[in-house]
Amino acid sequence: MPLLCLASPKGGVGKTSLASGLAHALHRTGRPVFAIDCDPQNALRLHLGLPITDPEGYLARLHLRPDWRACLRRTPAGPDLLPYGETDMRGALATSGLIEREPELLAGPVRAMLADPSAIVVVDTPPGASAALQILAPQAALVLAVLLADAASTALLPEIETGRFLGRGTLGTLVGPKLRVVLNQVDRHSRLSVSAAEGVAAHLGARLAGAISREEAVAEALACQRPVGAHAPYSTAARDIEDLAATVLREMPVAAPAPVAPAVTSSLFPWSRP
Amino acid sequence: MDAQEPDISALASRLGMRGVRYRSFGNPPYRGERRPPPVQPNVVPPATMPAPAMVVPPAPPGMVAPPASPFMAPPPGPAPAWPAAAAPRPAAPAPWQPAPAPAPSFPLIAQALAAAATPQGQPFGGPAAEPAAPGTLPFLALRAAVGGAGG
Protein backbone atom coordinates (compact mmCIF):
# COMPACT_ATOMS: atom_id res chain seq x y z
CA MET A 1 0.00 0.00 0.00
CA PRO A 2 2.37 2.74 -1.13
CA LEU A 3 0.38 5.67 0.16
CA LEU A 4 2.52 8.51 1.48
CA CYS A 5 0.81 11.18 3.60
CA LEU A 6 2.51 14.47 4.32
CA ALA A 7 1.26 16.12 7.45
CA SER A 8 2.37 18.62 10.03
CA PRO A 9 1.18 19.77 13.42
CA LYS A 10 1.75 23.35 12.25
CA GLY A 11 1.45 25.31 9.06
CA GLY A 12 4.06 27.13 7.05
CA VAL A 13 6.65 24.37 7.24
CA GLY A 14 6.94 23.83 3.48
CA LYS A 15 4.78 20.73 3.41
CA THR A 16 3.38 21.42 -0.04
CA SER A 17 6.82 22.24 -1.46
CA LEU A 18 8.05 18.96 -0.07
CA ALA A 19 5.04 17.07 -1.41
CA SER A 20 5.68 18.39 -4.90
CA GLY A 21 9.40 17.71 -4.65
CA LEU A 22 8.83 14.17 -3.45
CA ALA A 23 6.17 13.47 -6.07
CA HIS A 24 8.55 14.69 -8.75
CA ALA A 25 11.51 12.70 -7.40
CA LEU A 26 9.43 9.53 -7.10
CA HIS A 27 8.04 10.05 -10.60
CA ARG A 28 11.60 10.23 -11.93
CA THR A 29 12.15 6.68 -10.73
CA GLY A 30 9.76 5.56 -13.47
CA ARG A 31 6.81 4.78 -11.26
CA PRO A 32 3.34 6.18 -11.77
CA VAL A 33 2.81 8.83 -9.12
CA PHE A 34 -0.50 10.37 -8.14
CA ALA A 35 -0.59 13.47 -6.00
CA ILE A 36 -3.71 14.44 -4.09
CA ASP A 37 -4.18 17.90 -2.65
CA CYS A 38 -6.37 17.79 0.47
CA ASP A 39 -5.39 21.31 1.54
CA PRO A 40 -7.97 24.02 0.74
CA GLN A 41 -5.11 26.38 -0.10
CA ASN A 42 -5.09 24.47 -3.41
CA ALA A 43 -1.40 25.25 -3.89
CA LEU A 44 0.01 21.88 -4.94
CA ARG A 45 -1.17 22.55 -8.48
CA LEU A 46 1.03 25.63 -8.66
CA HIS A 47 4.12 23.71 -7.56
CA LEU A 48 3.46 21.11 -10.24
CA GLY A 49 2.93 23.60 -13.04
CA LEU A 50 -0.84 24.00 -13.46
CA PRO A 51 -2.01 27.55 -14.16
CA ILE A 52 -3.17 29.75 -11.31
CA THR A 53 -6.29 30.56 -13.30
CA ASP A 54 -7.41 26.91 -13.31
CA PRO A 55 -10.08 26.61 -10.58
CA GLU A 56 -10.95 22.96 -11.14
CA GLY A 57 -10.45 20.27 -8.55
CA TYR A 58 -12.02 17.39 -6.67
CA LEU A 59 -12.57 18.11 -3.00
CA ALA A 60 -13.85 21.65 -3.57
CA ARG A 61 -16.65 20.19 -5.70
CA LEU A 62 -17.29 17.19 -3.49
CA HIS A 63 -20.85 18.26 -2.73
CA LEU A 64 -21.58 17.76 -6.43
CA ARG A 65 -20.22 14.18 -6.25
CA PRO A 66 -17.93 14.57 -9.25
CA ASP A 67 -16.16 11.65 -10.88
CA TRP A 68 -12.65 11.93 -9.46
CA ARG A 69 -11.17 10.48 -12.65
CA ALA A 70 -12.50 13.49 -14.55
CA CYS A 71 -10.77 15.79 -12.07
CA LEU A 72 -7.36 14.11 -12.39
CA ARG A 73 -4.83 16.27 -14.21
CA ARG A 74 -1.55 15.41 -15.85
CA THR A 75 0.89 18.08 -14.67
CA PRO A 76 3.86 19.52 -16.55
CA ALA A 77 6.09 18.22 -13.74
CA GLY A 78 5.04 14.65 -14.45
CA PRO A 79 2.84 13.29 -11.66
CA ASP A 80 -0.90 13.11 -12.07
CA LEU A 81 -2.64 15.47 -9.69
CA LEU A 82 -6.05 15.54 -8.10
CA PRO A 83 -6.22 19.23 -7.20
CA TYR A 84 -8.33 20.45 -4.31
CA GLY A 85 -10.01 23.10 -6.45
CA GLU A 86 -10.90 26.67 -5.79
CA THR A 87 -13.04 27.26 -2.73
CA ASP A 88 -13.65 29.65 0.15
CA MET A 89 -13.73 29.19 3.90
CA ARG A 90 -17.33 28.05 3.96
CA GLY A 91 -16.73 25.58 1.15
CA ALA A 92 -13.63 24.18 2.82
CA LEU A 93 -15.50 23.64 6.08
CA ALA A 94 -18.39 22.01 4.22
CA THR A 95 -15.98 19.67 2.41
CA SER A 96 -14.28 18.74 5.67
CA GLY A 97 -17.65 17.91 7.21
CA LEU A 98 -18.71 15.93 4.17
CA ILE A 99 -15.67 13.67 4.10
CA GLU A 100 -16.02 13.18 7.84
CA ARG A 101 -19.55 11.91 7.30
CA GLU A 102 -18.70 9.99 4.13
CA PRO A 103 -15.01 9.04 4.28
CA GLU A 104 -15.39 6.83 1.25
CA LEU A 105 -15.58 9.95 -0.90
CA LEU A 106 -11.86 10.37 -0.24
CA ALA A 107 -10.76 6.86 0.63
CA GLY A 108 -12.39 5.40 -2.49
CA PRO A 109 -10.34 7.32 -5.07
CA VAL A 110 -7.14 6.65 -3.10
CA ARG A 111 -7.91 2.95 -3.02
CA ALA A 112 -8.55 2.93 -6.76
CA MET A 113 -5.23 4.65 -7.43
CA LEU A 114 -3.44 2.14 -5.24
CA ALA A 115 -4.88 -0.74 -7.28
CA ASP A 116 -1.81 -0.36 -9.47
CA PRO A 117 0.87 -2.02 -7.30
CA SER A 118 3.66 0.06 -8.82
CA ALA A 119 1.86 3.36 -8.25
CA ILE A 120 2.70 5.72 -5.42
CA VAL A 121 0.13 8.12 -4.05
CA VAL A 122 1.42 11.28 -2.36
CA VAL A 123 -1.16 13.15 -0.30
CA ASP A 124 -0.71 16.69 0.94
CA THR A 125 -2.95 17.20 3.97
CA PRO A 126 -3.90 20.48 5.64
CA PRO A 127 -1.80 21.58 8.62
CA GLY A 128 -2.88 20.34 12.01
CA ALA A 129 -5.71 17.97 12.65
CA SER A 130 -7.82 17.27 9.58
CA ALA A 131 -10.48 14.89 8.47
CA ALA A 132 -8.38 13.96 5.44
CA LEU A 133 -5.44 12.87 7.60
CA GLN A 134 -7.71 10.95 9.94
CA ILE A 135 -9.24 9.05 7.03
CA LEU A 136 -6.06 8.37 5.07
CA ALA A 137 -3.49 7.76 7.80
CA PRO A 138 -4.66 4.20 8.53
CA GLN A 139 -4.24 3.37 4.81
CA ALA A 140 -0.83 5.00 4.57
CA ALA A 141 2.43 3.12 4.30
CA LEU A 142 4.21 6.16 5.70
CA VAL A 143 3.12 9.40 7.32
CA LEU A 144 5.77 12.09 7.00
CA ALA A 145 5.43 14.82 9.61
CA VAL A 146 7.20 17.91 8.35
CA LEU A 147 8.85 20.17 10.93
CA LEU A 148 11.23 23.07 10.77
CA ALA A 149 14.57 23.12 12.54
CA ASP A 150 13.50 25.81 14.98
CA ALA A 151 12.14 26.21 18.46
CA ALA A 152 8.47 26.32 17.47
CA SER A 153 8.68 23.00 15.65
CA THR A 154 10.84 21.39 18.33
CA ALA A 155 8.23 22.40 20.88
CA LEU A 156 5.73 20.32 18.91
CA LEU A 157 7.69 17.09 19.33
CA PRO A 158 5.64 16.23 22.44
CA GLU A 159 2.50 16.56 20.29
CA ILE A 160 3.86 13.81 18.11
CA GLU A 161 5.25 11.65 20.88
CA THR A 162 2.11 11.69 23.01
CA GLY A 163 -0.16 10.94 20.08
CA ARG A 164 -2.01 14.22 20.37
CA PHE A 165 -1.14 14.92 16.74
CA LEU A 166 -2.08 11.66 15.05
CA GLY A 167 -4.43 10.28 17.63
CA ARG A 168 -4.29 7.92 20.57
CA GLY A 169 -5.77 4.48 21.06
CA THR A 170 -6.44 2.43 17.97
CA LEU A 171 -5.52 5.21 15.56
CA GLY A 172 -2.25 5.84 17.35
CA THR A 173 -1.47 2.13 17.33
CA LEU A 174 -2.17 1.97 13.62
CA VAL A 175 -0.33 5.09 12.60
CA GLY A 176 2.46 5.40 15.17
CA PRO A 177 4.87 2.86 13.67
CA LYS A 178 4.45 4.46 10.23
CA LEU A 179 5.28 7.98 11.38
CA ARG A 180 8.53 9.55 10.25
CA VAL A 181 9.70 13.13 10.63
CA VAL A 182 11.34 15.33 8.03
CA LEU A 183 13.17 18.48 9.01
CA ASN A 184 12.68 21.15 6.40
CA GLN A 185 14.60 24.37 5.78
CA VAL A 186 17.67 23.38 7.79
CA ASP A 187 20.10 26.28 7.66
CA ARG A 188 23.63 25.07 8.28
CA HIS A 189 24.78 28.65 8.80
CA SER A 190 22.34 29.23 11.64
CA ARG A 191 23.38 28.16 15.14
CA LEU A 192 19.75 27.81 16.14
CA SER A 193 18.85 25.71 13.12
CA VAL A 194 21.81 23.38 13.54
CA SER A 195 21.24 23.09 17.26
CA ALA A 196 17.55 22.31 16.82
CA ALA A 197 18.32 19.80 14.07
CA GLU A 198 20.89 18.06 16.24
CA GLY A 199 18.49 17.85 19.13
CA VAL A 200 15.64 16.54 17.01
CA ALA A 201 17.93 14.02 15.28
CA ALA A 202 19.24 12.77 18.60
CA HIS A 203 15.74 12.45 19.99
CA LEU A 204 14.10 10.79 17.00
CA GLY A 205 16.91 8.49 15.91
CA ALA A 206 15.83 6.39 12.95
CA ARG A 207 12.41 8.01 12.97
CA LEU A 208 13.98 11.06 11.32
CA ALA A 209 13.60 10.23 7.65
CA GLY A 210 15.63 13.12 6.30
CA ALA A 211 16.49 16.77 6.37
CA ILE A 212 16.15 19.35 3.63
CA SER A 213 18.46 22.33 3.31
CA ARG A 214 17.09 25.84 3.39
CA GLU A 215 17.82 27.27 -0.03
CA GLU A 216 16.61 30.09 -2.21
CA ALA A 217 16.17 27.62 -5.05
CA VAL A 218 13.13 26.12 -3.31
CA ALA A 219 11.26 29.41 -3.24
CA GLU A 220 12.38 30.25 -6.76
CA ALA A 221 11.14 26.88 -7.97
CA LEU A 222 7.58 27.74 -6.95
CA ALA A 223 7.87 31.15 -8.58
CA CYS A 224 8.79 29.27 -11.76
CA GLN A 225 6.09 26.65 -11.13
CA ARG A 226 8.47 23.74 -11.10
CA PRO A 227 9.49 21.29 -8.40
CA VAL A 228 12.93 22.16 -7.11
CA GLY A 229 14.30 18.96 -8.61
CA ALA A 230 13.35 20.26 -12.05
CA HIS A 231 14.20 23.90 -11.40
CA ALA A 232 17.59 23.48 -9.73
CA PRO A 233 18.51 19.79 -9.90
CA TYR A 234 22.03 20.35 -8.56
CA SER A 235 20.94 22.40 -5.57
CA THR A 236 21.52 20.91 -2.16
CA ALA A 237 17.80 20.99 -1.41
CA ALA A 238 17.00 19.03 -4.57
CA ARG A 239 19.58 16.40 -3.68
CA ASP A 240 18.24 16.27 -0.12
CA ILE A 241 14.79 15.57 -1.53
CA GLU A 242 16.23 12.85 -3.76
CA ASP A 243 17.79 11.28 -0.68
CA LEU A 244 14.46 11.51 1.10
CA ALA A 245 12.70 9.86 -1.84
CA ALA A 246 15.22 7.02 -1.71
CA THR A 247 14.59 6.62 2.00
CA VAL A 248 10.85 6.60 1.39
CA LEU A 249 11.23 3.88 -1.23
CA ARG A 250 13.34 1.82 1.17
CA GLU A 251 10.81 2.23 3.94
CA MET A 252 7.81 1.34 1.79
CA PRO A 253 8.96 -1.05 -0.91
CA VAL A 254 7.02 -0.55 -4.06
CA ALA A 255 6.64 -3.08 -6.84
CA ALA A 256 8.71 -2.25 -9.89
CA PRO A 257 6.65 -0.71 -12.66
CA ALA A 258 5.15 -3.47 -14.74
CA PRO A 259 6.40 -3.50 -18.36
CA VAL A 260 2.92 -3.51 -19.86
CA ALA A 261 1.81 -1.85 -23.04
CA PRO A 262 0.32 1.60 -22.56
CA ALA A 263 -2.98 0.51 -24.10
CA VAL A 264 -3.42 -2.19 -21.46
CA THR A 265 -2.52 0.25 -18.73
CA SER A 266 -5.04 2.71 -20.04
CA SER A 267 -7.82 0.14 -20.04
CA LEU A 268 -7.00 -0.93 -16.50
CA PHE A 269 -6.57 2.60 -15.25
CA PRO A 270 -8.43 4.83 -17.67
CA TRP A 271 -7.61 7.94 -15.66
CA SER A 272 -3.93 7.32 -16.19
CA ARG A 273 -3.56 9.07 -19.46
CA PRO A 274 -0.46 8.35 -21.53
CA MET B 1 29.91 18.58 19.91
CA ASP B 2 29.93 22.18 18.86
CA ALA B 3 26.86 23.86 17.44
CA GLN B 4 29.01 25.55 14.84
CA GLU B 5 30.81 22.40 13.85
CA PRO B 6 28.22 19.69 14.16
CA ASP B 7 29.41 16.15 13.84
CA ILE B 8 26.14 14.72 12.64
CA SER B 9 27.80 11.70 11.06
CA ALA B 10 29.21 10.63 14.42
CA LEU B 11 25.87 11.36 16.05
CA ALA B 12 23.99 9.35 13.47
CA SER B 13 26.36 6.40 13.79
CA ARG B 14 26.08 6.49 17.59
CA LEU B 15 22.33 6.35 17.26
CA GLY B 16 22.47 3.58 14.73
CA MET B 17 20.82 5.67 12.02
CA ARG B 18 22.25 3.93 9.05
CA GLY B 19 20.91 4.80 5.66
CA VAL B 20 19.87 8.32 6.59
CA ARG B 21 22.10 10.97 5.20
CA TYR B 22 22.47 14.34 6.79
CA ARG B 23 23.96 16.16 3.92
CA SER B 24 22.12 19.25 5.03
CA PHE B 25 24.31 19.75 8.04
CA GLY B 26 27.63 19.47 6.33
CA ASN B 27 29.28 21.66 3.83
CA PRO B 28 27.85 20.85 0.42
CA PRO B 29 30.35 19.23 -1.89
CA TYR B 30 31.19 21.22 -4.98
CA ARG B 31 30.49 19.38 -8.14
CA GLY B 32 32.50 19.82 -11.23
CA GLU B 33 35.19 22.34 -11.66
CA ARG B 34 33.18 25.39 -10.56
CA ARG B 35 34.54 26.21 -7.17
CA PRO B 36 33.87 29.65 -5.76
CA PRO B 37 36.90 31.90 -5.72
CA PRO B 38 38.65 32.21 -2.38
CA VAL B 39 37.37 35.07 -0.32
CA GLN B 40 39.75 38.02 -0.30
CA PRO B 41 39.85 39.87 3.00
CA ASN B 42 38.49 43.36 2.64
CA VAL B 43 41.35 45.24 4.22
CA VAL B 44 41.16 49.01 4.36
CA PRO B 45 44.38 50.88 5.03
CA PRO B 46 44.07 52.44 8.46
CA ALA B 47 45.36 55.78 7.23
CA THR B 48 42.29 56.30 5.02
CA MET B 49 39.70 55.46 7.68
CA PRO B 50 39.87 57.83 10.64
CA ALA B 51 37.85 56.88 13.68
CA PRO B 52 34.74 59.03 14.10
CA ALA B 53 35.12 61.57 16.85
CA MET B 54 32.48 61.58 19.56
CA VAL B 55 31.33 65.18 19.98
CA VAL B 56 29.51 65.79 23.24
CA PRO B 57 27.66 69.12 23.38
CA PRO B 58 28.35 71.17 26.47
CA ALA B 59 25.74 71.07 29.19
CA PRO B 60 23.57 74.20 29.59
CA PRO B 61 24.39 76.45 32.54
CA GLY B 62 23.21 74.91 35.77
CA MET B 63 22.73 71.45 34.27
CA VAL B 64 24.94 68.43 34.56
CA ALA B 65 25.66 66.51 31.41
CA PRO B 66 24.75 62.83 31.71
CA PRO B 67 27.48 60.32 31.14
CA ALA B 68 27.77 59.12 27.59
CA SER B 69 25.86 55.91 27.07
CA PRO B 70 27.78 53.08 25.49
CA PHE B 71 24.63 52.25 23.53
CA MET B 72 24.29 55.71 22.05
CA ALA B 73 25.34 55.90 18.46
CA PRO B 74 28.13 58.40 17.92
CA PRO B 75 27.23 61.46 15.87
CA PRO B 76 28.35 61.44 12.29
CA GLY B 77 31.93 62.42 11.86
CA PRO B 78 33.08 65.40 9.84
CA ALA B 79 33.16 65.13 6.12
CA PRO B 80 36.37 63.62 4.87
CA ALA B 81 38.93 66.10 3.71
CA TRP B 82 39.91 64.14 0.68
CA PRO B 83 37.77 64.10 -2.46
CA ALA B 84 35.44 61.20 -2.91
CA ALA B 85 36.92 58.48 -5.01
CA ALA B 86 35.33 57.96 -8.37
CA ALA B 87 33.11 54.93 -8.63
CA PRO B 88 35.07 52.00 -9.98
CA ARG B 89 34.27 51.24 -13.56
CA PRO B 90 32.98 47.76 -14.13
CA ALA B 91 35.71 45.71 -15.64
CA ALA B 92 34.99 44.11 -18.97
CA PRO B 93 34.56 40.36 -18.59
CA ALA B 94 37.47 38.31 -19.72
CA PRO B 95 36.84 36.44 -22.93
CA TRP B 96 37.13 33.08 -21.21
CA GLN B 97 34.50 33.97 -18.63
CA PRO B 98 30.94 32.83 -19.32
CA ALA B 99 28.38 35.46 -20.06
CA PRO B 100 26.45 36.57 -16.98
CA ALA B 101 23.22 34.72 -16.46
CA PRO B 102 20.15 36.68 -17.50
CA ALA B 103 17.91 37.98 -14.77
CA PRO B 104 15.53 35.22 -13.77
CA SER B 105 11.87 35.63 -14.46
CA PHE B 106 9.27 34.25 -12.10
CA PRO B 107 6.11 33.66 -14.10
CA LEU B 108 3.95 32.75 -11.14
CA ILE B 109 4.56 36.13 -9.52
CA ALA B 110 3.28 37.97 -12.58
CA GLN B 111 0.38 35.59 -13.06
CA ALA B 112 -0.69 35.87 -9.43
CA LEU B 113 -0.56 39.67 -9.52
CA ALA B 114 -2.53 39.68 -12.75
CA ALA B 115 -5.12 37.32 -11.29
CA ALA B 116 -5.37 39.46 -8.17
CA ALA B 117 -5.95 42.54 -10.32
CA THR B 118 -8.79 40.92 -12.23
CA PRO B 119 -12.13 42.30 -10.99
CA GLN B 120 -13.94 39.48 -9.19
CA GLY B 121 -15.94 41.34 -6.63
CA GLN B 122 -12.84 42.16 -4.58
CA PRO B 123 -14.38 42.60 -1.14
CA PHE B 124 -11.07 43.93 0.11
CA GLY B 125 -10.90 46.71 -2.40
CA GLY B 126 -8.55 45.29 -5.01
CA PRO B 127 -5.40 46.99 -6.15
CA ALA B 128 -4.72 50.59 -5.23
CA ALA B 129 -6.23 52.96 -7.80
CA GLU B 130 -3.56 55.62 -7.44
CA PRO B 131 -0.43 55.97 -5.44
CA ALA B 132 -0.89 57.26 -1.94
CA ALA B 133 0.52 60.58 -0.93
CA PRO B 134 4.06 60.53 0.40
CA GLY B 135 4.08 60.13 4.12
CA THR B 136 0.88 58.09 4.21
CA LEU B 137 2.36 54.91 2.82
CA PRO B 138 2.63 51.99 5.18
CA PHE B 139 6.05 50.73 6.22
CA LEU B 140 7.53 54.13 5.43
CA ALA B 141 10.70 53.45 7.37
CA LEU B 142 11.18 50.13 5.61
CA ARG B 143 10.63 51.70 2.21
CA ALA B 144 13.10 54.43 3.01
CA ALA B 145 15.64 51.90 4.19
CA VAL B 146 15.24 49.78 1.07
CA GLY B 147 14.74 52.38 -1.62
CA GLY B 148 15.98 55.54 -0.01
CA ALA B 149 13.06 57.47 -1.53
CA GLY B 150 10.34 56.91 1.02
CA GLY B 151 8.00 55.45 -1.52
From TrEMBL, chain A:
SUPFAM superfamilies: P-loop containing nucleoside triphosphate hydrolases
Coiled-coil blocks: none
Pfam families membership: CBP_BcsQ (PF06564)
NCBIfam families assigned to the protein according to its UniProt record, in alphabetical order: cellulose_yhjQ
Protein name: Cellulose synthase operon protein YhjQ
Organism: Roseomonas nitratireducens
Automatic annotation (TrEMBL), chain B:
Ranges for region Disordered: 25-45, 75-103
Biased composition (Pro residues): 90-103
Protein name, UniProt field: Uncharacterized protein
Species annotation: Roseomonas nitratireducens
